[in-house]
Amino acid sequence: MLVTSARGVNGDGYGAILAFGARGELEGRFSEDPRIVDPRGLCLDSRRELVYVNSGDDRVLALDRTGRVVLDSGRIDGLDPGGGYFGPDGRYYLTLRKRKTVAVFPASLGPVASPVLRDDVVPFPRGFGFAPSGEFYLASGIGPSGEGDNTVTVFERSGEVRTPRLVEDPELSPLDLLVASSGNIVVSSEFPFGEPHARATIREYEPHTGRLVRVLVPDPAMGFANPRGLRFGPDQCLYWVGKDHVVAFDFASGRFLGAIAQLERLHGQAVAFLPELAVDTR
Fold it and tell me: Which residues of 141-153 are buried (b: 16+ CB within 10 A; e: fewer)?
């Protein structure tokens, strides 16, 4: 299990990609490459051979199984990447936080990122996903200065807005978004965002009407806070990262499975799973 740990404005974490073993034990940094700075989004390619990471150094990197950088977009002024996923067309999509939009790279990370949506398309992009029929869901959350609208917007393949506010949920403040195998939209939420008493939940919505289907809640005794990225694991459980913890749910039943890993100052941003991980712990 790989987890990006923030540093700086995103949390006083380790500023690294951390590797955890099958029992949740910390195995070390996945890579010591200095180009990995305040890492955010994390995603494997379709062959599960390369790990793509969005670096706070205004670049995107791809690493092999040993943590060696094999692809580098180069530094792009103002990129400020957030989360990232591979789309159904085999290209790498990512949110651009300053430009408040989504862009796409070829898998080779060159030559430049192309815009998918216009700039300022939502107040603060907080995760996205692709519907089987081609629609594009973009979570619109709250930014550091408090601006935002807390909903999910639906776009056509062309990039035109289909539904400006699919979700009307007064307790939603999105931080990441996935599309489940059922087609339902699954959203990581912290409401009210950034407040000490904020409630961390995973909220599942029907994709055509935006109706709230169910809410997954971690055990309050755990103190799970500052939730960020979601990812379905190879066991089809749903994994969720935040401050000090990686937790999981049996997604089929909604049962909370507890902490999969625990590390002080984790400040997790994203999680991914790499088979047969090799880590240099020297």
Answer: bbeeeeebebbbb
> Angle at CA 82, nearest 5°, toward 236 and 11?
90
User: Is residue 111 pLDDT above 60, yes or no?
Assistant: yes
In angstroms, the CA 41 to CA 60 distance is 9
The arithmetic mean of pLDDT across residues 233-262, rounded, is 97
Q: How large is the average pLDDT for residues 154-181?
A: 96
The per-residue pLDDT for range 41-69, each reduced to its tens digit, is: 999 998 899 999 999 999 999 999 999 99
* pTM as predicted: 0.94
Residue pair 232/205 in contact (Cβ under 8 Å)? The answer is no
What are the boundaries of each domain within the chain?
A: 2-272
Asked if residues 43 and 57 have their Cβ atoms less than 8 Å apart, the reply is: no
Higher pLDDT, 9 or 159: 159
Of the options 2.130.10.10, 3.30.40.10, 3.40.50.2300, 3.30.420.270, the CATH number for the domain spanning 2-272: 2.130.10.10
